[in-house]
Design goal:
Chain lengths: 439, 439
């Protein structure tokens, strides 16, 4: 029987999950791949901590990853260190040494992936990263294989479980962002420094990867327009709920008018839509493509076992290639050879078109509404709905407007004009409304 | 460049979709597989009808499928005829001739798959059938590849779009089954003879296939307990809705206590669950597995283009095998070699445990409720909720009971005892309540 000898680099949460899965399910993996998938090495700077896993004698625990990479008796390295420092150096070295690499590292792939793919190409090895994007969900496999005969039109992804958990809790409990974030940190759903998650950077890394595969473009993290959820207020969530919407942080990749737009933003989606139903720490990716139409993929975006499952799925693909004697890479990391990737024209943010939710704080006086609608008309922004519930002769009250589809340029100009009105206090709040275009 | 030469057998709706996709996206397929995927033959008994597709000179339209199968210049046959008659003969012949086969035919695979897989094994060719189950959704690929490192615990599938459309319409419009069925037939969502769909047979074919891959068992259509949706009434749908449930026809495959249960049944699922959100002609498959946890896959279950996308995804996998010079089958049709499949102990229907919705028609008289609850107690059926809304001194009124988890044996005995009461008219209606066990 052929064998695939595995080295795990980084023995933290995900590393532990992969180690456990390889040990617990060794028989199952052999039955399903026809190849012995055997753990040989684990490398971590900490070789002392008890991870609660009994390692068999056939597994060597090292504190020097270089030794593992240089070893003759390892075929594939799982990089589960994270970050773009030492992880990059080690992955590059492994590829150059002719080892296949499987990684869960979204930041590494999104920001250094082009260089790493070139190294994998040069060595004729697989570089796989299913676990990097939407955790256990096989979205990379689905785009790269199941939907590969389609032209992909749009991707909408709930790609960050921390943000989705926070937004769900804010809605269900009516609490402000800071309170829910603190709670999420205590429960281990958010990092001590939550920047990567709540500012949308993590979701943007993942969107970068999905967009490259979907649109055949090089990895282009800098092309993503990014906005996080810090400014989403409990008030806006309550309004959205009342109007039949949910607020979700979405990663959006779209083709429109021959251009590509990539953005991460909190948006309103219909409560009754499939993405509207995705709550808590779960992730989901909704894809529109020309033949398959609307498809969606749902599951846990993080965690020891779900992430391990995705890492191991990549190992299974490689093991099946080994068993079948296939020339590798059998599938290119971005779904097609690097030479065929090309950078599309990007759509500037201000040209992107959407409907908008606007929340103003206005004085409840005669003529104010007329002035506001006049400004909207002047900027050719047409109104889908307008709601004012509270009345007060002396205080500012919220006025919510839902517009038809307009460009961001139009809405920014409109809001700037409204902001100058004496009867308007505070900065108007604007959130895009995404029509998921189920087809 | 290597090539995969394709023959399409059956030029109906799905055949037309596959032909269009291969012609429209020839460049894209070549870019993504590194292999020229070229349509060579189409075979259909009707070569005269205009399908609105302009065929290039390189494609030969035949009315004799045998000629295509025997041809030296075709590598893979797409069987899109349907049924288990001529389709079986032709697929078997193609496999014996050493051609790969891709089919969308669920009935064929569910009822003759073991024989066909043996023929494919003997010839060393691929037999693939992604399009057979849940249309465009890559559920077979996901089970066979993405989740292959997991032990699968449970599958819950909305596998029949016709039934889901009918149930959705009944709920939204408050109409009876027959009315909605007639409307669905007129719209082309239901066949003139709707038996296969509404009696659950089509869903059972699909469940058979999913269960084999998930549980490593031979295809065992006869092991599925099947109940359709003809007896689902608008009244039950209204009650379910009021209690926060949706009624869905689910294909259910579960492991419990070392046994496997396979059934197709209308069941109540929570309105807020992911499957509860799947409406109209869409399909979805929810999978619980040990490492990945809960995952779900959603998309169109039928239609020219969605089904074509699934057929072409199988062609893409084969083309990538050809390009990589892989020994085939690279992945066995049921996810592991036939010799390793084994039949589990099946759980008899009467031993299956679930909560139940019961709707009785009772006289609103003193003592009736006490008598009913006494019968429930006697059969050790504990009550989660009990609702009687209407009051009438003379007529029978509905009484709805939701039980805790019990065996089907218990509930059948209970209902038989209740039915004998003088104060109960009509046959009590019972529907299982599925706890989807999100984890």
């Amino acid at each position: 029987m052929k064998a695939l000898r595995v080295g795990v680099m980084g023995y933290g949460t995900v590393g532990r999950g992969v180690v456990r899965m390889l040990l617990d399910h060794a028989d199952l993996l052999e039955a399903r791949t026809g190849c012995a998938v055997t753990l040989r090495y684990i490398a971590d700077h900490n070789t002392e901590s008890d991870r609660g896993v009994v390692l068999p004698e056939t597994v060597t625990l090292l504190n020097d990853a270089h030794k593992m990479i240089e070893s003759e008796d390892v075929d594939v390295i799982c990089e589960l260190i994270g970050g773009t420092g030492i992880a990059k150096t080690l992955v590059l070295k492994a590829l150059q040494q002719g080892k296949h690499v499987v990684t869960a590292n979204k930041a590494l792939i999104a920001t250094h992936g082009n260089e790493l793919i070139a190294a994998a190409d040069a060595s004729g090895v697989e570089l796989m990263f299913e676990a990097s994007t939407a955790g256990t969900i096989p979205i990379i496999k689905s785009l790269r294989e199941a939907l590969a005969g389609n032209e992909i039109r749009e991707i909408y992804g709930i790609l960050n479980g921390t943000c989705n958990y926070i937004l769900t809790e804010m809605r269900e409990k009516g609490l402000p962002f800071e309170t829910v974030l603190a709670d999420a940190q205590q429960k281990g759903y958010a990092e001590a420094d939550p920047t990567f998650d709540v500012d949308g950077i993590d979701a943007a890394h993942k969107l970068t990867i999905l967009a490259s595969i979907a649109f055949g473009m090089p990895l282009s993290f800098d092309a993503v327009s990014v906005e996080g959820i810090r400014h989403v207020s409990a008030v806006d969530i309550a309004w959205a709920t009342e109007m039949g919407y949910r607020i979700k942080l979405l990663g959006i990749a779209k083709r429109c008018d021959g251009k590509v737009q990539l953005r991460v933003q909190p948006v309103l989606v219909e409560e009754e839509s499939m993405l509207g139903a995705v709550e808590g720490v779960f992730n989901a990716v909704f894809v529109n493509s020309d033949f398959a139409g609307s498809t969606m993929y749902y599951g846990r975006g993080a965690g020891e076992e779900p992430t391990a499952s995705a890492v191991v799925s990549d190992l299974i693909d490689i093991a099946r290639n080994v068993q079948a004697g296939a020339k590798m890479p059998r599938i290119y990391p971005l779904g097609q050879p690097t030479a065929q990737l090309s950078m599309p024209t990007m759509c500037p943010v201000e040209e992107m078109r959407d409907a908008y939710y606007l929340r103003l704080s206005v004085l409840d006086r005669p003529g104010v509404l007329a002035d506001i609608t006049a400004i909207l008309k002047e900027h050719r922004v047409s109104i889908d709905a307008i709601v004012q519930k509270e009345r007060s002769p002396v205080e500012h009250v919220p006025l919510v407007i839902v517009t038809h589809e307009v460009t961001e340029r139009q809405i920014l100009d409109t809001v700037a004009a409204i902001e100058k009105m004496d009867s308007v206090s505070d900065k108007p709040r604007m959130i895009r409304i995404e029509d998921l275009g189920v087809a």
